[in-house]
Amino acid sequence: MAGTKIYYVEDDRDDAEIVAEAFAGHGYEIHVFNNPVELFHQLHLDEFLPTLIILDINLPLMNGLEALQLLKAEPKFSRIPVSLLSTSEPGVGFDGKDLYFLKPTQYHDYEKIVTRLLEHSKRAASAVSQVRRVPDDLKDHPNIMRLKAKLKEDLARLRDTKDSRS
């Protein structure tokens, strides 16, 4: 749908394809990231923030709960609705304010989850301003500057790791 950006952080390609198909069945396209570092890099580049972020828990470089904590700690990202979709229970660090779904084994159950995720996103969007532009005064916020520096380091380390595997 126009004006809707949905980000999904998932390192398992098969799971990512299933979720993408389920969203496509509702008329939505999602952007998949392999790890939270790639997500944060994109978020810092975005002029308009996504309407929903979905995180797996078991991820490389940083787990989904750590990514959730960073998202909620940064004023720039704290109002983005976030949901967890994983084979793991959220456990410690999950306050229950965000939606959590256990990955199902049947495709039709994914469709039900997508319906709930879209409802969650719409409710959250109506609770905050419809304009999701990053305020200019937050772009140079000290916490964001530190996070950007950390993300640059992590991306460089990720590139070095990929290069050494080639």
TrEMBL record:
The keyword Zinc-finger does not apply. The keyword rRNA processing does not apply. Pfam families: Response_reg. The modification 4-aspartylphosphate is found at residue 56. PROSITE patterns: RESPONSE_REGULATORY. Coiled coil: none annotated. Keywords: Phosphoprotein. Residues 5-118 form the Response regulatory domain. This is Response regulatory domain-containing protein.
